[in-house]
Write a structure and sequence with these properties.
alpha+beta, extended, single chain
């Protein structure tokens, strides 16, 4: 009775009267989301009289407030709140101050979802007729509360329509989800919540303890502490808010009983939704803070990790001032754009939007044509000036600041934290230590030990010495490295051939461009089909499918009218005649030599070849059961039993019970499904049985081979309500053949209905051939060649496996020589990352070979053929017939099951071929990397490879840090926008979307974010882009630039040095005499040349070098030593050894500051005599050279003096004895004064010796001497500066006349001036280095003294406390003693002696016997007096304090 398929689908939810009466009525969205309540909110403009009505009589009334916009989501003072009467119904509509969206006021009307659609449409129509949608409508908002029992979530969805004064409508959607069953369904949530509370309190107590110890000001000066406080504050806020929500009455008491459509229920759920939304926002921001804190914690693991934060901190100052200048200029351009293009360009209508769009332009987004529509004259000026000034200049200036900070922080890291190392290598080392105990039992097993022993003995039968084995291992490693560094070798040539062969082989097999167009022809039919759907009326494409009903309409358009576009009956020719085609008759195409061929709408060359089926459909039903939650059972009767998985790729029906219920609670048997209207008995196929898609189980349906058959089958499926919420998955697959390419195409369109009602969909096609090595028409030669190339590929893989095994054998030998044979595998992979790459590549290569052999040797691939002759038509093997329990060959259904068997074989071939392509694509990458392994040995390429190798550690560290921060932002945006923006529906999806933001791909997600929360979205977007797009991404550039410049500069400096040496040699050959004179002049100034012209009395180079600080100190020690020698032979031996004084590297590292200070004066004579006495007595190293032993001791003393000069204050100097003149009583002070007034060039050697005799040796002079010595050690030596300053004009004019002498002086004058500036520069550098070391020494001394003072202060304070305790104890004991004595005297006062004079009262003191006994008693009391013990303790403590004071004074003196 239905006229069209669309009409049938629209009314497919009609049921019989008996079932309809028994079922509850409620509205749903996408099948499973029940609508609880619908609220309509209205806000109206307030009209006022036009003050200029007399002038403009056409507008007597205007909007109050000048037409300021009114929003349903915020209160406004310009809205009309007066009650108005409906124009048709006469109903009074009252304004509710606490009504509307989130209590922002408005006129409210509630729709009851349990009513029929006709009643709700009538109610909305009445609102329209009552004036709800007229010109006074300022804002209209629709709010829906829905519940999904499958996922146990509530949702509050809103759609706002705001109208401005011009009548334009602005739409703003909103969405929030929350649950009322989390704590009730999952009881451990209470334990988790309690654990979170306890941990938060523990961290709060820890932070309070830190504040108490450090002080508030010092604590808040640490940025990390501020982040901790913010995070803990947010945690406590989350805990309090969650507690308030969970303990509230709504969370535990809400139910559907009487809640449908009610105002109170809607308001209750809306308030809970607002609280949950606020909680989600706090949680999201807290997660971001937590990940930021984790970044700071990770930065402490290694200096490389800390480099990211250090760069930002180092550049923060410059960036702040740059941003001030940048912000001022940017504001000017933003205002310029707003005023020029705002009236015509929607993205610049406000100043805020203008700022955002200009910021987006800085990321490279061009909008010239949009600006041009706004102002055709100003657009080119603004566009070019903005991009030139901001994108080309200021943006790169911003990057330059970051790069400069990177260079500075990297330099600091390399010089201050050189021991940080690479965390990746540290982790590998830790992993090796962790794995080694597990591997050790295997390594130490008897077979392994025997194998290692045999390998070691075979290579080293004649070598038992461990040192010799280590030398051999080192030589073997060097040989391996040399072989690896060869540019041209058999292995490298074979690798290039290997790569070329594999790429060509895969190209021949895949034929990418041809198969792409073949797949596109099939994909366009499924993906690009469009149709009109209603209600509501809309045009739809494949990506718009959101319900099972949409799948049915897609099948009608894409399958029935797309795949089944045209059919013909092909009649096979006999006796060599060609086949012919005829139209399909009413009865089909009947006959053994006849078959229906169907063409899709995309191409006349893609046809079917099966007998009964072109398109196969597999669907699985859903199983529902009663809702176990009694709170919501009245409003949500049933829930789906199957897990929320992709059932199109899973056997979901295998887990169902024998009896289920449908969505409405009607019982049915899922494995005995009968069509409700067509009466068709659908055959269920269990998992593993032939027929369904990849034998996952379910119901299989054939759409036949003609369009009419497909149309009829689809109508039956729709009438039987297969395309409804009672199904969980639909899979359409079909196989087509293209004779031009001799290629088959397996196509599939899959749909899975999730528990939320959302439909996940995908379309895929895979082209494959059944004759990979022959036939193929035009490509027959390529297929033939691919067979031979595959054989050559197998041979090369075998060769490289042997190379890898050879490398492992060599590594086993090396590891065995080093005594680490058990870890030779780890050593092999640690020695070079290329070994890891080679191993992975060979593993992939072997998998490629096995997978391709598995594909090409498949029985079906070699035996299948389709023919119109029934005698030659392919039939499944007998074994497979038994395996899949196929019907007999005489059965009418035989051809159908044979087609299902062909589908199964093509599924298997497609899976194998797809896996082969995956392995081949990965292997192509690793094979290319293997070629880089050999190409990198070329000098030019080596620089680039060295740059990548050197920068890999920093790149990995940057990536880890950036990923951590990006995960924090992913959590933030997922929690905030996950309900509204599909790109943020999960954390992985959010991460991928943010990565797209980093490459300036953000148009779609940003627009959706702005609809949900404009201000928050724009702020988060700009902060993210500033951090990641402008800073973090450019850190990769900074790393590569810094590493590349360092690597390339070293190579170029080396090459320049070689060129300089060659040029220098040529210059010396052509101008030796003149160059010698220039070198002599430089050498005299710098003191770097050798001694020359000793007969001349004027100062020479050798003279100046002899008077250097280091040489003078050496001569002093040597002279002092020789004076103490006893014999001439001993003196000669000592002098001989003294010449090599500073060649000894031994030093007394245990000497403390006192010894260094003591050694700053002259060598103490008693020490020298003691050493010499020990030397003469043979007590210094009796088995060695005594003179050498003695000079080593002297060398140590001298080096300590030198260190004292280099690293002591300026006042600490060494009296010089240069040339033997120091200390001479016969020295002429007048000569010294006269010589001091002369010029240096006029002084003789003796004069200068006399002048310098009383000049002390200072630290800066020693530094300068060391600097000159370092310059002497460089290539070029003493002539280095002369060669630098020497130009082409600096040529000797020749001659000895006055004119020649003047010309020579004129030429040398600028040379002398420049060289003198260099002399001064060297002297300043020496002084700077000296005072820098003094500064470090002073800071160290101050730090030590500060620490010592603190220790002394603490000790004295403890002593004072102890003294006070002792004094108090002494006072107590004295008082006790006094009290005891007084008591004792009173007791003894009244006693009389009766011992000898009985009867006489004689006083006790007058009796000698009693006096004796009394003395003994007093002595006993005195000995037992506790006061005496206290006095002894006090005395002991005083002695201890005095010892500590002496030790403290000694320690202070030592420091």
């Amino acid at each position: 009775s239905f006229e069209s398929l669309s009409d049938l689908i629209t009314h497919s939810d009609m049921k019989s009267a008996e079932i309809e009466a028994a079922l509850p009525r409620f509205s749903t969205v996408s099948g499973f989301n029940r609508v609880i309540a619908i609220r309509l909110t209205l806000k109206r403009f307030k009209l006022v009289e036009n003050p200029v009505f007399d002038k403009h009589q056409t507008t007597p009334y205007i909007l109050e407030g000048g037409g300021a916009s009114i929003s349903a989501t915020a209160p406004s003072g310009n809205e009309d709140k007066t009650t108005f009467t409906g124009l048709k119904t006469g109903q009074q509509y009252e304004y509710k101050e606490d009504g509307g969206f989130e209590g922002n006021g408005g006129f409210e009307v509630f729709l009851r979802p349990e009513q029929s659609r006709e009643l709700m449409e009538r109610q909305v129509l009445e609102l329209y007729e009552d004036g709800w949608f007229d010109l006074r409508t300022a804002a209209f908002h629709v709010s829906l509360v829905v519940y999904n029992g499958n996922v146990k979530l509530f949702g509050l969805f809103g759609f706002g329509f705001n109208f401005d004064f011009s009548g334009m409508c602005h739409i703003s959607p909103s969405a929030t989800s929350f649950t009322l069953e989390e704590f009730q369904e999952f009881k451990p949530m209470y334990l988790l919540f309690a654990l979170v509370v306890v941990l938060t309190l523990v961290f709060i107590v820890a932070e309070l303890s830190n504040i108490k110890e450090m002080g508030l000001m010092m604590y808040i000066s640490n940025p990390v502490a501020i982040i901790d406080v913010v995070s803990l504050t947010l945690c406590m806020s989350v805990i309090i808010m969650q507690y308030v929500i969970v303990t509230g009455p709504v969370y535990s008491d809400f139910s559907f009983d009487g809640a449908e459509g009610g105002q109170d229920a809607f308001k209750t759920l809306e308030d809970l939704s607002v609280s949950q939304s606020t909680l989600n926002f706090v949680v999201a921001f807290n997660l971001l803070v937590v990940f930021l804190r984790s970044v700071m914690l990770v930065s402490g693991l290694s200096p490389n990790f800390n480099l990211l934060l250090a760069v930002i901190g180092g550049a923060l100052g410059n960036l702040a001032f740059f941003c001030i200048m940048f912000g001022i200029m940017f504001s000017g351009f933003a205002f310029f754009a707003h005023f020029s293009f705002g009236p015509a360009y929607g993205e610049m209508t406000t100043v805020f939007l203008s700022f955002l769009d200009c910021f987006i332009m800085m990321t490279g987004k061009a909008n010239f044509f949009a600006l041009n529509r706004g102002d055709i004259f100003m657009a080119p000026i603004f566009y070019f000036s903005f991009f030139t000034f901001f994108v080309f200049i200021l943006k790169n200036m911003f990057i330059s600041i970051v790069l400069t900070s990177y260079d500075v922080e990297k330099y600091k890291m390399e010089n201050e934290n050189s021991g940080g190392g690479n965390v990746g290598l540290q982790m590998i080392g830790m992993l090796q230590k962790a794995v080694r105990p597990l591997v050790r039992p295997v390594v130490e097993s008897a077979p392994v030990k025997l194998a290692v022993q045999l390998a070691a003995e075979r290579g080293h039968k004649d070598v038992d010495d461990s040192e010799e084995r280590k030398k051999r291992a080192k030589a073997e490693e060097e040989k391996i490295e040399r072989d690896r560094s060869k540019v041209v070798s058999v292995e490298s040539i074979c690798m290039i051939v290997f790569m070329s062969l594999f790429i060509t082989l895969v190209t021949y097999i895949t034929r990418g461009d041809q198969l792409f167009f073949l797949g596109r022809a099939e994909m366009d039919v499924a993906r690009e089909s469009t149709w009109i759907a209603q209600p509501p009326l809309r045009q739809m494409v494949f990506e718009d499918i959101a319900s099972p009903q949409d799948i049915a309409q897609w099948a009608d358009t894409a399958i029935v009218h797309g795949v089944y576009a045209r059919s013909e009956c092909v009649i096979g020719g006999g006796n060599g005649t060609a086949a012919r085609r005829e139209p399909v008759g009413p009865d089909g195409c009947v006959g053994d030599d006849r078959q229906i061929i169907t063409y899709d709408s995309s191409s006349a060359w893609n046809t079917n070849f099966l007998i009964t089926t072109y398109v196969r459909m597999t669907f699985q039903l859903a199983c529902f059961d009663d809702n176990p939650n009694t709170r919501f059972q009245d409003g949500y009767k049933t829930i789906r039993l199957s897990d929320d998985v992709m059932c199109d790729s899973e056997p979901c029906m295998e887990t169902y019970p024998s009896e289920c219920k449908n969505l409405f609670g009607v019982p049915y048997k899922p494995k005995q499904f009968v069509g409700k209207n067509s009466g068709t008995e659908y055959t269920y196929r269990a998992q593993g049985e032939l027929g369904t898609y990849r034998m996952h189980g379910g119901y299989v349906v054939s759409f036949g081979t003609r369009q009419s058959e497909a149309q009829s089958v689809l109508q039956d499926l729709v009438s039987d309500e297969v395309f409804s919420a009672d199904s969980v998955s639909f899979v359409f697959d079909w196989i087509s053949y293209n004779g031009n390419l001799d290629t088959f195409s397996y196509n599939e369109a899959k749909f899975s209905v999730r528990a939320t009602g959302m439909v996940e969909k995908s379309v895929r096609t895979q082209a494959l051939t059944l004759q990979p090595s022959d036939f193929g028409g035009f490509y027959e030669s390529e297929r033939s060649q691919s067979f031979y190339m595959f054989m050559a590929y197998v041979a090369l893989v075998a060769y490289y496996i042997l190379v890898l095994l050879s490398g492992l054998k060599k590594q086993l030998t090396v590891s065995a020589d080093n005594g680490q044979a058990g870890s030779f595998l780890l050593d092999f992979f640690k020695s070079s990352l290329w070994n890891v790459s080679d191993t992975i590549s060979l593993f992939l290569s072997t998998q490629v070979i096995f997978t391709w052999l598995q594909y090409t040797m498949h029985m079906f691939l070699n035996e299948y053929k389709f023919s119109l002759d029934s005698q030659q038509r392919y039939s499944p093997p007998n074994n497979d017939e038994k395996l899949y329990n196929m019907v007999p060959r005489v059965s009418p259904d035989r051809f159908f099951w044979e087609d299902m068997y062909v589908f199964l074989q093509f599924e298997n071939l497609e899976s194998t071929y797809s896996w082969f392509m995956t392995l081949a694509s990965l292997n192509s990458l690793f094979i290319t990397l293997k070629v880089v392994k050999y190409v990198q040995n070329i000098n030019r390429v080596k620089r680039v490879a060295g740059t990548l190798d050197k920068a890999k550690g920093l790149i990995v560290n940057f990536t880890i840090m950036i990923a951590l921060l990006m995960i924090g932002f992913a959590f933030l945006l997922h929690v905030r926008f996950g309900v509204m923006v599909s790109e943020f529906r999960s954390v992985p999806s959010s991460f991928i979307t943010l990565f797209s933001f980093m490459i300036a791909d953000f148009d779609g997600p940003l627009a959706k974010m702005r609809q949900g929360s404009p201000t928050f979205a724009i702020i988060v977007f700009m902060v993210f882009m500033m951090c990641f797009y402008f800073i973090f991404v450019n850190l990769y550039l900074a790393t590569m630039m810094s590493t590349y410049s360092e690597t390339i500069s070293n190579a170029e400096i080396k090459a320049a040095r070689e060129r300089y040496e060659a040029r220098k040699k040529n210059q010396q050959e052509h101008n030796q005499d003149f160059g010698q004179k220039c070198m002599e002049f430089i050498s005299e100034k710098l003191g770097m040349a050798q001694e020359q012209n000793e007969r001349d009395d004027r100062p020479t180079v050798g003279f100046w070098r002899r008077l250097g600080a280091v040489r003078t100190l050496q001569e002093r020690v040597k002279d002092a030593t020789v004076d103490r020698a006893d014999s001439k032979e001993q003196r000669g031996l000592v002098l001989k050894q003294g010449n090599n004084l500073f060649d000894e590297s031994d030093s007394d590292e245990g000497d403390g500051p006192e010894e260094q200070i003591a050694d700053m004066g002259e060598l103490r004579r008693q020490d020298m005599m003691e050493y010499w006495k020990n030397y003469r007595d043979g007590e210094l190293d009796k088995g060695g050279d005594k003179a050498v032993q003695f000079m080593r001791v002297v060398s140590q003393k001298t080096q300590r003096q030198l260190r004292a000069l280099l690293f002591s204050r300026e006042g600490t100097t060494m009296p010089a004895a240069r040339g033997g003149a120091a200390g001479s009583d016969a020295h002429d002070h007048g000569t010294q004064a006269v010589a001091a007034q002369q010029k240096e060039s006029e002084c003789s050697q003796e004069d200068i010796k006399n002048i310098l005799a009383y000049e002390p040796i200072s630290g800066d002079e020693v530094w300068l001497d060391a600097l000159i010595t370092a310059i002497e050690a460089e290539d070029g030596g003493c002539g280095l500066i002369a060669d630098i300053l020497k130009t082409s004009d600096l040529r000797d004019p020749g001659g000895k006349k006055k004119q020649a002498i003047l010309q020579r002086e004129k030429i040398l004058k600028p040379f002398h001036r420049d060289s003198w500036l260099i002399f001064q520069c060297l002297q300043l550098k020496a002084k700077g280095k000296y005072y820098e070391k003094l500064g470090h020494e002073s800071e160290a001394i101050m730090a030590n003294l500060k620490e010592q003072n603190q220790i002394v202060f603490d000790y004295i304070r403890q002593l004072e406390n102890k003294f006070e305790e002792d004094r108090s104890q002494i006072r107590k004991l004295k008082a006790k003693k006094k009290r005891l004595r007084s008591t004792l005297e009173q007791l003894l006062a009244g006693i009389f002696c009766t011992c000898k004079n009985k009867g006489n009262r004689i006083d006790k003191g007058t009796c000698a016997y009693c006096r004796k006994m009394q003395a003994q008693e007093m002595e006993r009391i005195k000995q037992s007096d506790p006061f005496r013990e206290v006095q002894e303790q006090v005395a002991k403590m005083k002695r201890h304090i005095q010892d500590k004071q002496h030790a403290t004074n000694g320690h202070s003196h030592e420091s």
